[in-house]
Amino acid sequence: MEWKHRSLIDLDTWSREEIEYLLENAKNMEDLLDRPIKKVPALRGKLVVNLFYEPSTRTRVSFELAEKFLSADVVNWSVSGSSSVKGETLRDTAWTLESMGADAVVIRHGAVGSAAYLKNKLKRSAVFNGGDGTHAHPTQALLDIYTAWKRLGHLDGKKMTIIGDIQHSRVARSNMIGFKTMGANVVLSGPPTLLPPDLESFGAVYEANPFEAVKEADIVYLLRIQKERQDEGLFPSLDEYFLTYGADERLIKAAAKEALIMHPGPVNRRVEIESAVADGPQSAILAQVRSGVAVRMALLYLCLGGAGKE
Amino acid sequence: MNADEMTRALKRLAHEILEKNRGGENCLLVGIQRRGVHLANRLKEYIKETESKKVPSGVLDITLYRDDLTLLHDQPVLHSTAIPVDISNKTVILVDDVIYTGRTTRAALDALMDLGRPSAVQLCVLIDRGHRELPIHPDFVGKSVPTSQDEVVEVRVNELDGVDEVVICQREEYRQ
Questions:
Q1: What pLDDT, in 10s, does the model give residues A37-46?
Q2: Is the domain of A252 the same as that of A297?
Q3: Taking the CB of residue A172, how many other CB atoms lie within 10 A of it?
Q4: Boundaries of domain holding B108
Q5: Which of B59, B63, B75 to mutate to test the interface with A (most CBs of A within 10 A)?
Q6: A185-212: b or e for each residue (b if 16 or more CB lie within 10 Å)?
Q7: Does residue B7 belong to any structural domain of this protein?
C-alpha cells in the first residue's frame, strides 16, 4: 500500500483501508514490547519534539516510549518554564522547533485547531495531534480501535456505547469518527447537559438512559469526568453521576456478554467506573495503555520513514 | 532453476548444514521474511528426513533494521518476528533466498543480536548473485549466479507464488 499521510491531525481524512494498514503494523510493533531489547533502529537520526501546552502524563509518556523504542531523538518541550510563559506565540515556537531540525512535532494544546494551525506553519516537520481542545485526539482513537479490533476480531456491525461528558470530549469525537469508519455503530449516553449541539453531524444516536444505551453493546466506553464540570453546574455531584451513569456490575450486565469495558484514563474510581468493573475480566483498560505505545510506534514508522510524501 | 533443481539444491544444503554442525546439534534455523521463511521450513523437513531429528526454526523480520528506510519512497510492510526458543548459546543458521549487497544480512545480524547472544551465526542462501557491498560471505550456497546490476533475481516459492522457480529478469521487465 502506498502510504500518503505524513501527519495526523484527525481521523476524518483517513480511509478504512489506511486505518487497517496501521493496525496490522501495530500488531508487529506490539510484539517488540515483549522483547528483552525493545529498541529498533528504524527512526535513528530523526528528531521528534513533544510540545505539550496542557498537562498530560500518559499521552506524553506513550509517545515518548514509542519514539524511543524506534530510536528517534526525543525532546520534551513543556509549557511550564518555557518561552511561551514569556509570551512566545505558537507560530514562533513552531518555527523555532523547525529551525532546530525537528522532523516531527507532537502537539497537545488547549485550543481547537492548534494542531492543524501548526501543520500549516511548518514546512518540513510532520505534526501529530496529541489532543487539541475539545476537537480531536486521533491517536487515542487509533489505540482504542486497535484494542477493540484485536479483541473482537473486527468492528463491522459492532455496537459501541460511549458514556460521559460528550460535549467536552475530544476522545469521544475522534472515536465516533474512527469507529464509524471501521463499520461500528456508536450510541452515546450521559447527562443531557453534557451533550454537544452538533450531535447529528457525527451520525451517532443519543440515549439518555444508560441501561437502554448499553443494551447488547460489544464495547462500553467510559469517558473521564472532569471534576471542574461540577463547579460549572453541569451535573449536581460526582456521587449522583456515579449512581446514574457509573459503570457498575449491574450496568455491565445489561451489555452484551463479554462486552469490552474501555476507558481512556486516568480512571476516577467510583465516578465513571466501579473498581470491580475496572479491574474485572472484561476490562481492557490496561490493554489500551499497551496498545497506545504500539499504535504510536506504527504511526511514527509509517509517517516519518520514506522520502517525498505530501 | 526449476522446481526439481531447487529441491536438489535445498537437499544438498540440508546435508551441508548437518555435516558442518555435527548432525545439527544445538542448531536453530531462522528464515528471513518472507521467502527465506519458506526455504527454512523446507530445510527443516529435509533435515528431519535425513537425521530424523527436529531442528527448531523461527522467522525474522528485518524491516525495522534496514539502513535505507529514509531513502525509500514507501515504508516497507512489517512482518512478524517469531522465534520460539531462546537463541542464546545456539548456532543460528540464517536462511534467505538471495544474497546480493549483503545489507539484508547485516540488518538480520543486528536484529538477531537484539534477541540474544548466539554462540555462532551461519548464513545459508539459495542464490548468491554477487555484487556485495559489505564484507559478508555465506556459509552455504545453493547456486552462485553471475548477474549484472540491472538484472533482478526472483526466487518464487510454492507457498507464496504458486510455483517453485528461480528466474532472472531485466529490471524494466520486473517493474511491470
A1: 999 999 999 9
A2: no
A3: 28
A4: 3-69+78-150
A5: B75
A6: bbbbbbbeebbbeeeeebebeebeebee
A7: yes
